[in-house]
Specification:
four-stranded antiparallel β-sheet, twelve-stranded mixed β-sheet, alpha+beta, 16 helices
Amino acid sequence: MRWHKRLLAAGAVAAVTATAAACSGGQVRGAADSTPQPGSSAGTADSTFVYVPNLDVVTDWDPASSYSNEIIAMENIYESLTRYNPQTKKAEPRLASSWTSSSDGKKWTFTLRQGATFHTGKPVDAAAAKAAIERTIKEGQGAAYIWGAVDKIEAKDATTLEFTLKYPAPLDLVASAGYASYIYDTTAASGDLKKWFGEGHDAGSGPYTIESWQKGKETELTLKAFDGYWGGWDGQHYKKIAFRVTPELTTAWQLLQRGEVSFIQRLNSQLFAQAGGTDTVQTSQTPSFQNLLVLFNTAGGPLKDVKLRQALQKAIDYDGLVAAMKGSGVAASGLVPEGLLGNIPGMTPKQDLVGAEALLKEAGYGPGGKQLDLTLTYAQGDADQELLVTLLSSALDKLNVKLSAKPLQWTTQWDQGKAKDPSKRQDIFIMYWFPDYADAYSWFVNVFHGEKNVQFNLSYLKDAAIDKEIDELPALTATDKAAAEKAYADLQNKIINEQAAVAVPYVQNYQRAYAKSVQGYTDNPAYPNVVFVYDLKPGA
């Protein structure tokens, strides 16, 4: 059940240029909604931070299985043991104040901070943390696989939580995941806890708690300060957060200019340039951990021939695409974005049409040979993917390759990619990927490890040697980072160069715009599109 997350990855970007309703089926909303809006007083008297997403916020309120757009709210309501710091590239304290691991990486001991309580009033102790993680593992949904190494969890005393692992794993990073790592009160409901969550209740320990949730309304969700938060409320803080769903980007931009909202998660290049010259607005540009994957069908159809896959890699105009994106993407170097263990400098691909033509000719195609017919699917409404497809089609036309490209809603595209009948699958599948926690393992285990039933391995790669190397990554990351770095480099060489299962055209750049009054905002790419509102100060 990982498709919800890919709605965020394949849909959130798409909808910034689309006027369609959110993928999850919410109503189309915009300027016509006359509901009074929080934060519309332009100043900060009400201390409300108004976030403007373009899709419905909540698909799943259960912190065990949540795996979609609601991360932007959940990270302000719930907390994990640790939080990833992109500056230091390490996990830092959150509900755990410190931790240690054994030399073999198979035993981890976390010391919980004292004085933290859940919104239900119950203390956040080791027994409660153990119960939350065990319930998430048992539910087995969303990103619960992140706890796959765990053999046993013990609450040694009120503040000591001990994990025994089946194999070494970087549990400090795992515990910082944006999904499935939340600590919550499993005793919050007297009856069915999942049903209770689904009604819009929460059992977190974070700085904010749910005030109101109105699915389908423009202001879908408001959060209010939790008075008992362990961090306290001294100094200046936003006391409320409102999520105001605005599918049309131009409408969102007008609301920001009028001072009615605080933050837009992504602008297109034209509006971002305009925002840079607007006095009442500030901007932020940060490379994300989210990249675009062009996956080639290695199992069936014409692209079963590795020479044709290599020819397609060479046909992509990487530099032209990044230039045309005007800052919304940066050149990729391998599968792993910069800032994560496993990023390999020097793997940035370049277009080589002469090399592409030579490979096509070797396979019996290309100018003067047979015409090669290929099918491709990509996210409907995504301007950047559309640009890639336009440039690729143009390059392939000159090489006697006809590309039939179809823009689809994510669920439709994914269903085709997983079709039981291999002849119904596409030759080229385009999608975004980002990690569940700040670790490159996610790309390899989810996208390139052999699968009996297809989920996200949409190149259909099956290679026992590659699978074995992928399976060893968590242990190496926990015990020998130099060896892990070497394994990541080797895997990327095999998957990209030897197998030619994928091309990686760009890493997405987050281009944000927010009110001049917002102070202290920094982007954390490990938590896509999340604003940690408690860390901000409302200015004048």
